[in-house]
Amino acid sequence: MYGAGDVRVEKLPDPTVQAPTDAVVRVVRACVCGSDLHPYHSMPASERGRPMGHEFVGVVEEVGSEVATLRRGDFVIAPFAWFDNTCEFCREGLTTSCLHGGFFSETQAEAVRVQQADGTLVKAPVGEDSALLPSLLTLSDVLITGHHAAVTAGVDARTSVTVIGDGAVGLLAVMAAKRLGAEQIVLMGRHRARTDLGREFGATDVVAERGDEGITKVLELTGGRGTHAVLECVGHMPAYEQAVGTVRAGGVISRVGVPQYEEAPVGFGSLFGRNITLTGGPGAQRRYIEELLPDVLEGRIEPGRVFDRTVGLDETPEGYRAMDRREALKVLVRP
Ligand SMILES: [Zn+2]
């Protein structure tokens, strides 16, 4: 990406094993993320540009001398962060805060160098022609991010849930909340085709209105109280304000949309006076992939339904355009 709206496909040197803990993975499927649209809207023009993409599944091509669990030919899922899976944060499950980790930003490509390969990559028993590829690819980001929102908000059979945002993360947050047992799931979104998919994933109510009008509708659906959990899957201030407006006293707001602001109301009138908990963050936890993978492999969930367009690598700029214009919900890139 060379600036807002300026995505180019270029030839670069092939990635190589540089450290003994590295692997090189050939990308079988990548995709464009809703969070890639933030720089697509706002990145200042740059001479050098920056590589893009943080989601992929692929096949191991080469491993460093200290990589113990992977070999050439293994099919792997990569979360959007890399980590050793052994440091004190990883042992607590917070792999996105790994002392030896980082976040991918180069995976809309033919191949990727993966640092800390043993810690990062999760093997899946499928071939690279598997019909499950789209669903497996959601374990790279959008499904585990939606799941992270539901888990950190404490969603279970006892909780009512509001999901803000009808992008792929929002729709899969609905799926995750349903999977964890929530009975009432209100989806706030205004794109009918998307909210229809959200209903299939488990939303019991859809609120198309935004702002105060949307908040009023959610309160009407919940006896005037709001929901125990609010999963904010957008990242802009109006979505945060909707979260504050729809959360029940004593409830939890979990944000997984990357915030495009640093300052937000947290005082008596917003969070404090009603004992609201604010949580969330990057959700590339390895344990989520391991927990959700069996459900994907055995067909109990089909999160890959969020992909509604496929492009070749050369057509990636068109993929950005289609998502930006809301013509596509989520674009799969097939190198
Ligand atoms: Zn670690």
Descriptive account of the structure:
- The protein has 335 residues and is of the alpha/beta class.
- It contains eleven helices and 15 strands.
- Strands 1, 2, 3, 6, 7, 14 and 15 form a seven-stranded mixed sheet that branches. It has a six-stranded parallel sheet with strand order 10-9-8-11-12-13, with helices on both faces.
- Helix 6 (168-179) packs parallel to helix 7 (192-201) and helix 8 (211-221) packs parallel to helix 9.
- The mean pLDDT is 97.
- The chain binds zinc ion.
Labels describing this entry:
alpha/beta; 7-stranded mixed beta sheet; 28% helix; binds zinc ion
Gist?
It is built from eleven helices and 15 strands. By secondary structure, it is α/β, with parallel strands linked by helices.
Q: Please tell me what the overall shape is.
A: globular
Overall helicity: 25-40%
Number of DSSP E strands: 15
| SS field, number of helical segments | 11
- Give helix and strand order, one letter per element, not per position: EHEEEHEEHEHHEHEHEHEHEEHEHE
Mean pLDDT, to the nearest integer, reads 97
The major pleated sheet works out as: 7 strands, mixed
Bound molecules: zinc ion
> Which residue ranges are poorly predicted, with pLDDT under 50 across at least 5 consecutive positions?
none
Broad structural category:
alpha/beta
Percent of sequence in beta strands: 15-25%
